[in-house]
Each structure stands twice: as C-alpha cells, then as structure tokens.
From TrEMBL:
It comes from Streptomyces netropsis. Residues 15-186 form the Glycosyltransferase 2-like domain. The keyword Transferase applies. It comes from the Bacteria. Residues 333-375 are annotated as: Disordered. Keywords: Transferase. One of its GO terms (molecular function) is transferase activity. Pfam families: Glycos_transf_2. Residues 333-345, 352-364 have a biased composition (Low complexity). This is GT2 family glycosyltransferase.
Amino acid sequence: MKPPPAGPGGAPDVSVVICVYTEDRWDDILAAVSSVRDQSRPALETLIVVDHNPALLRRLAKTFGDDGAGGAPDRVRVLANAGPRGLSAGRNTGIAASTGEVIAFLDDDAVAERDWLRYFAEAYADPRVMAVGGRTLPVWESRRRPVWFPAEFDWVVGCTYLGLPPGRTEVRNVLGGNASFRRSALTAVGGFANGIGRDGNRLPLGCEETELCIRLTRAVPDAVLLIDDRSVIHHRVPAARERFAYFRTRAFAEGLSKALVARSVGARAGLETERRYTTRVLPAGIARGVRDALLGRPGGAGRAGAIVAGVAAAAGGYALGSVRARRGGERFAPATVPGAGAHTGPAGGPGRSAAPEGPAAAGPVTEPAKEGTEA
C-alpha cells in the first residue's frame, strides 16, 4: 500500500464534513465551523451538508457564499444532501464532494479543540491506519453532569464513555461525530449505509459507524482503526437530553440499531465489543454506584439504577429489532459513494445478510476498556 499524498508536515490533507439539518442549531453550526477555521493544522476545506432543509441551505449559502470564497484554510462549501434524508446520506454527499485524502466528521453541535486535526493527521503517517477517532467531552446545558447520569453511558449523549483506555489505542470502530477516515477506506466499502443512522429524531439513532468499520476491516484485513484521546471535541448536551426519559429512549434506540448491525455483519462481529462492555465495564460501574450510596455520596444509587435501566432498555430494543429483522420489516442498504469501487454487500458477499445469533445487551459504539483500565 502506497502512502497517500502528503500535506503540511508530511501528513495528508484533511477535508472536514459537518452535517446539519435544523436552523435551531444555527449558533452551534457557526461555532463548529469557527472551531475548524481555528485549527493549528488547517483543514483543506470545510463542507457543510444540509439535510433536506431548503431554508437552512439558503441561509448558510448566504452566510458563507456559494463558491467557497475565502481560500484555504477558510474555504467553506455549502451543499445539499444528494441522497435520501438522514445522516448517512449526508456524510456520503460530503465524502463525494470533498477533495482531501482524509475526511474528518464533526457534529454540528460540537466544537473542536485547536489541535484536533493535527493529531488526526499525524496518525495517518502509518499507511495501515484507515480511521482515527477522538475524545468527545459533554458540555451540559445545566453546567454540571446530572448526579444520576453514569459516565459509563456517556455514549447516550454522543460522548466518550468511562471505560475506554487512555492515549492512542486500536479499536473496533470509531464514533462518527468525532472521527476521520482515509478516502481509500471509504471508497473500498462504498460509504455509510442508509437506513440505520440518524434522521432527525426518528429511530434508530446510530451505529452506522460501527457497521461501516466492521465492513472496512473485512474489506481491508490489515486496516488499523485508532482512537486518539488528544483529538478532543466538546459536544453540547441540551437540557432535554439530561433527563432520564431521553436516557432510556436513546438506550432502547441503540438496541434497535445494534440489531440491524448484527443482521448485516453477524452477531459475532456486531456484538463482540458490547459483550465485553456489559460483562466488565458496567458491573464495575454498578459496584461504584452501590459503594457511593453506602458511603452517603450523592447520586450513587441513581447511577447504579440508571446502568441497570439502560442495559434493560437496550436489551429490549435489541430484542424488538431482532424480531423485525427476521420478519424483513427493518433493513438498511449500504450506499455507494460516487467514485467508490464496487461494493459486494454486507457480510462480505453479494446480497448476503447474516442473521444474528441471538439477542444480547447492546451498548456503546466504541471499544470498551481492556481489563484493568476502568477508572
């Protein structure tokens, strides 16, 4: 495998894609773009992909211009999602329109720290590296974490959860709101699958990165996928997502999504990480909660109870999703990014779809800690 063309400092050029869908996040969108412009290692370009919202598209085009005026590193392009509604198609639109050797994705309600892209780019000096994710920290609207909210479940609000090993480490999959991929990796697998990722507030709400990364490591067996906790973004958590009702609903939705992933790539690959998470990370979290409750510390019992409730909700979602998948009522199709190579379909063969081996509790979408790394 030949090393990619190098950008500044010998690292490949990076395009940044920000997918947006609502004017309610206008200030967040502007802050996200501003954080990309302030990077210590400039992005080649920033692409804002608007998901079927003509008013927002016009407003952004008026703000940033239709021709990417400003020149690198301030070049911002505003695009309409060229595929069906949803985050996966929006990302595929951004991939197709981008020109960088590496494509990084940033959530529209997050801001990146100044060295975010620098650490991403440095990792790609190794030609085996096909994807690099970072650390996502919550910014609670209430200004502090709810005392009952377990850090082991921070994936519920799109953030890095307690249990991940520190530093730069290999993982099964990255978390899409703070991640990057080598272009050759994305074209090898045909891009993100439609029908599984976020689509406004509809369910299911995630796991498209898990599914893509599993397909990627099958298509490129020597691929290395990393998380580097120095590539940091700060993700806004609105008040509505600090409530237990959202926590439970989002955990249930994760179970639904994991059932679709298991149907696509097989339960062994689709749930291997989640089994370790539920047998190592979560029991330790429950034990800490119970210990804190016995010591009279605030929130201990609530955190232990929330972990149990979250696991139960995710397991329920997985069970329902598995039934729907078996009946053929819930499917998703891997898309093809323009310019990508032929895609052979999920599970490594044309039209093949591996059924899940059985229900299992679904959890986060990134690699949990190795033994002995729990805080």
